[in-house]
Every structure is written in structure tokens, then in C-alpha cells.
Design a protein that fits this description.
Radius of gyration: 22 Å
Number of helices: 11
Helix content: 25-40%
Distance between the termini: 35 Å
Strand order of the largest sheet: 2-10-9-8-7-6-5-4-3
Number of strands: 17
Structural class: alpha/beta
Length: 382
Amino acid sequence: MSKKESISTPYYMCDESLLRANLEILNHVQKQSGAKVILALKGFAMWSTFPLVKQYLKGCTSSGLHEALLAREEFAQNDKNLEVHTYSPAFKDEDIDEIAKISNHIVFNSPSQLFKYSSRVKKINPKISLSLRINPEQSSSPKDIYNPCGVYSRLGTTLANFDEKVLAHIDGLNFHALCEQDVDALEDVLKAFEEKFSKYFKNLKYINFGGGHHITKKGYDVERLIKIIKDFRAKYDVDVYLEPGEAVGWETGVLVSTVLDIVHNGMDIAILDTSAEAHMPDTLAMPYRAMVRGSGMAGEKKYTYRFGGNTCLAGDIMGDYSFDEPLKVGDKVIFEDQIHYTFVKNTTFNGIKLPSLVILREDKTLDVIKEFGYQDYRNRLS
């Protein structure tokens, strides 16, 4: 346990009480709709929180062998009621046997991959469930980089490429077409999915609605989601899965950094001990403007600064922020909502130190879970 002032920046801090609040919402969806909600590790993989998360959610969905191992070892270990689902755009021969041993469900991206591996994985794990990922060719994803149903997408099988012979091997179908979206977007995708593929639902056990559902965001129509799921389950007599990642970690924590220097080149520029490129990559890839506690837009408050990262990349810029009082070297800068899709994407570009991982417990004590150093940078290289 540590006092916040004594923790060396940068660090991510997850607030356990906020995480529980999100989990309560997701559990409400489960209880009222009958769906199973599983955690997408690609969006939230802070496994030190799993003792709390698995009190609510039914398992994890992983994107390959290493995430599946994490799910089995840290989430579903010694509990047969917790599931591990594993999907990959393409599985490798060297991985598939171990994946079959530790997974409850394997999701194949194409009929060719399913035909290649279905007998092999069933031999290894006779109880394993198999499914095929579908591309419903309908999405309103806000950015092409995050649109799994975009033109020429490699993710999922379109109707034109669907092979009915897969039906003899699978227990379910999956689709994933959303990105930070509300129920309206789900209804549009579900309509397209049903129109194209419902004729194949007859003997299936489940349909997986994927992730991207912004269930825990303020204003999300949770009750409408529940009704959609209940109606779908009644109509087709199948189980339904949801696999949110971002919705689990949404607004549950921050990235805390320190002002190292302030320089002037046409405007005041504050250099921080963190990095957009290395520590907040989606702010450049999406792109989006991360909120900073106590700030306004450029020019909104009296003192405006451009925030830059402590790497040599010219574009390592978080954005322009204004404050009521001037910043000083040594001031703390707190970036809001930085627990999901952040440290799972971190890099050690330029040898910059990875932010520590901290949990604010429900009793308001702080636990420093992990600190990083030179060895973490060195051991990734050769």
C-alpha cells in the first residue's frame, strides 16, 4: 500500500469501486436477459482485478494462445463454470493443440480453418464447442481502422463465402461488428445478420453478439438491450453471449503523469513523463482527445498548453488543453478513462518506462501491483 503522492509516475490507477459498478450493470444484463457476458481480454486484461471480475462475468474471450493461457490461469482456473473462448483470424499449427486443451470454445474465422482443425481439436478435447465467425457486412463503426465489417475485411465469413458443410461441425455462430456503440447499431447489425444467416440457426446452441457494446456508458439503453436479447433467445431457442472489453473497464481509471518541462515555440508546450505513442496509442490511432482532469479546450481557460510525450517522435502529442492556473514543472496531469485499450497496447518505444499498475481499493487504500523498469525493455529485445 502506498500514498498516491509517493508513487512514481507515470502510472495507471484502476478504481475498484468504479469497476464493480460496471460489473453490476453487466450482471444486470445477464440476469434479466439470460445472456452470458464474458470479458474480452483484448480490451481489458488487468488480471490483478480478476478476483473481482469473475464474481460477475462468466469467462473470457481471447485472441490467441497467450490470451487464452491468461484466461485459463488467472480467470478460469479451478472453476468449471467459467469459460475460455478463443478466436484468431488464423490459427497456427504450433498453437492449436494447446489452445484446444485450455479452451471451452474455439471460434474459427473461415470455413477452411474450421475444416482444417475441427477433427484435431475435437480429438484433443471432445467437449469443446466450435463456432464460425460471421461477417454480416453491416456496421456503423466510427472509424475504418476499427470496422470489422469494412470493405475487404479479413474478419469473419461473408454469406458469399459461407459453406453449409460447416453446420455439421459447429455449435454456434459469432459476429462482431460494433465499436463503442449503442443499441441502435446492434439492431441494424442484428437485422442484417438474421436476414442472411437465420436459416442456419436451427440446430445451433448459441449465437455470440461479439463486443463493442457500450453498455456501461452513461445513456446506454440497457433495458432495450435486454429486450433484444430476450426476444432473440425466444425466437431462435439459443443461448446468447456478449463479449465486451471496453465496457468492463470504461471510466474505471486514469493515467497519472508529471510535467517535466515547459518550453515555448509559438505556444507553451508541456513535456510529460508519459507518451501518447507508447502509453495511449489509441489517441493517435483512433484518433481521439483524451480528457485531462481540470482542463478545458484550447483557449477556454486562461492558460493553454500543448501536451507532448517524452519520446523523440515529433507526433507524440496528446493535444491542447487549457487551465485556470499556470502549470509548473512537477505538477501532476491526470488523463481520464485510460484503463481499457491502453496498457494492453503499451510499447517501450525509445526505451520509455512503462507506467506502473495501481489499484485504488474499495477501502480507499492504494496497491502498487506492478512497477516496470529497464529489464522489461531489455528483455523484449535481443
